[in-house]
Amino acid sequence: MTFTENASKEIIKIMIRDGLSPETHAVRMGVKGGGCSGFTYTLDFDNKQRKFDMLYESHGLNILVDKKSNLYIKETEIDW
């Protein structure tokens, strides 16, 4: 799970704009069943790592993914 350097910089800008610190908050990514159209991908900010979360770091940005979602998005790279 990675973000390109450009994507990381833009996400960090958004976090700071919204009053969140990249040192205390992470991007939480996930996958949810979306019914007949397949999966729904989620992206949010979170400041708590849960028991079954995987933690990744990409260009100064922490990324949290639950183990189940990780099966589907573990090799994903996000660009901006």
Summarize the structure in short.
With 80 residues, the chain is an alpha/beta fold.
Structure notes:
The chain is α/β, with parallel strands linked by helices. The protein is 25% helix and 40% strand. It has two helices and six strands, in the order βαββββαβ. A four-stranded mixed β-sheet has the order 3-2-5-4. It has a two-stranded parallel sheet with strand order 1-6. A hairpin with a 5-residue loop joins strand 2 and strand 3 (39-46). The longest helix is centred in the first third of the chain and has 13 residues, at 5-17. The two termini are 15 Å apart.
- Helix share, percent: 25-40%
Return the average pLDDT rounded to an integer: 94
> Taking strands numbered 1, 2, ... along the chain, how are they ordered across the largest sheet?
3-2-5-4
* SSE succession: EHEEEEHE
Helix and strand layout, with pairings?
Layout: E1 2-3, H1 5-17, E2 26-33, E3 39-46, E4 53-58, E5 61-66, H2 67-73, E6 77-78
Parallel strand pairs: 1-6, 2-5
Antiparallel strand pairs: 2-3, 4-5
Keyphrases for this structure?
single chain, 80 residues, alpha/beta, two-stranded parallel ribbon, 2 helices, 6 strands, 40% strand, globular
